Amino acid sequence: MSASTNGREGGETVDLQVNGPLNVTGHASADHRTGDPLSEGGRGDGALVGDRVGDPPREGGWANRALVGDQAGGVPSEGGRADRAPADDRVGDPPSGGGRGDGALVGDRVGGPLSEGGRAGRAPADDRAEVLLDESLAKDLAAAALTLARRFAAGATLWCVAPAWEPHAHHVAVEFVHPVIVGKRALPAVALTGPGLVDTARLAVRPGDVILAVAAESDPDVASITRRAPAWGATTLWIGNGPRPPAGAADHVLWLDDPDPLVPATGRFVLLYHLLWELTHVCFEHPGLLSGPDVECTDEVCITCGDEGRLAEVIAPLGAADGGTLVRTANGEESVDTLLVGPVEPGDLLLVHAGAAITRIHEDGTR
């Protein structure tokens, strides 16, 4: 027989689905245990969800009920209920005052001493969890977010690359182009994937853009892209873990020193670029931050005055109208004299000064 009835237990309305055999008064207890003797009032001892098999009937004729999380083997508390253990209760704790098991709340130290009131002592947050963001990384993150906000305000596009972990590139792009908070602006961001990543980036990136890479220090494509980015006029951010890239490899480096190769799959990279997104939008809320300081020529050697070498990438040897070599710099296309460095090929990196290439920059960054 099957039926449904509503009853009250301890002042709470409960809905019981009855599927057991009828007892002598015509009532069947939920999950009635076959062969149980009738309790006072003619009801069979009902083993409700979590009831402990073999418990004697309590006052009113019902077996002691062990609610979800009740301690196995706990003694009945006042009123006939088994001691309830709150979420994450430590199995085997003695009941505290009032008949409840000592509740180890989320974050409580397993095995810790009992605090006042019978609860397990809580460990401070910094004792319970690993520090995911130290002071140095927090400063790097804030600086990167400010730079990113300023570039976006000036019309930049964010190009995302992650040769070994392409889902990260897609995730970063989606994070910026599809804001999850109402009222936040959508920002132009694109994931670059597939083979020939350096050539793809060369075609896509324009002066003022930003390249964000998620990769190990040893990734050759990312190393090549970040090395060429100054010639393209792009700002670079590099997220990774393990051994760090050489100093100056990118404009902003957000790095986890943990060498574990599984770090990219743990969510810690996701935390970094989620925070980067959040902080970038915080900068947008303060328009005064979005215009950078004016650059003044105060030193004897200044790139603004042309007295310092600039990075250039060869586009075409002898391809300029004046017979010089056509190169790409942060200022656009230029013609330079390459007599000092000898024959060059498209893609070669040069250091130029006063209209002439004075040295080559090799793939390992040396001259």
Descriptive overview:
The protein has 6 helices and 12 strands. With 367 residues, it is α/β, with parallel strands linked by helices. The protein has a 5-stranded parallel β-sheet, with helices on both faces. A 5-stranded antiparallel β-sheet has the order 10-9-8-11-12. Helix 5 links the parallel strand 5 (210-214) and strand 6. Helix 2 (135-153) packs across helix 6, helix 3 packs parallel to helix 6 and helix 4 packs parallel to helix 5 (220-232). The model is unreliable at 1-123 and 125-129 (pLDDT under 50).
List keywords for this structure.
single chain, 367 residues, alpha/beta, 5-stranded parallel sheet, 5-stranded antiparallel sheet, 6 helices, 12 strands, globular, disordered N terminus
Helical residues, percent: 10-25%
Give the strand tally.
Answer: 12
Specify the biggest β-sheet.
Answer: 5 strands, parallel
Strand content: 15-25%
Rg on CA atoms, Å: 34 Å
Q: Tell the overall outline.
A: globular
Oligomer: single chain
Distance between the termini: 89 Å
Order of helices and strands: EEHHEHEHEHEEHEEEEE
Which ranges are low-confidence, i.e. pLDDT below 50, for 5 or more consecutive residues? 1-123, 125-129
Q: Overall mean pLDDT score?
A: 73
Number of helical segments?
Answer: 6
Kindly name the structural category: alpha/beta
Strand order of the largest sheet: 4-3-5-6-7
Short description:
The protein is of the alpha/beta class.
Question: Could you give the topology of this structure?
Answer:
Layout: E1 3-9, E2 12-18, H1 125-128, H2 135-153, E3 158-161, H3 166-177, E4 189-192, H4 197-204, E5 210-214, H5 220-232, E6 235-241, E7 252-256, H6 268-284, E8 310-316, E9 325-329, E10 332-336, E11 349-353, E12 356-361
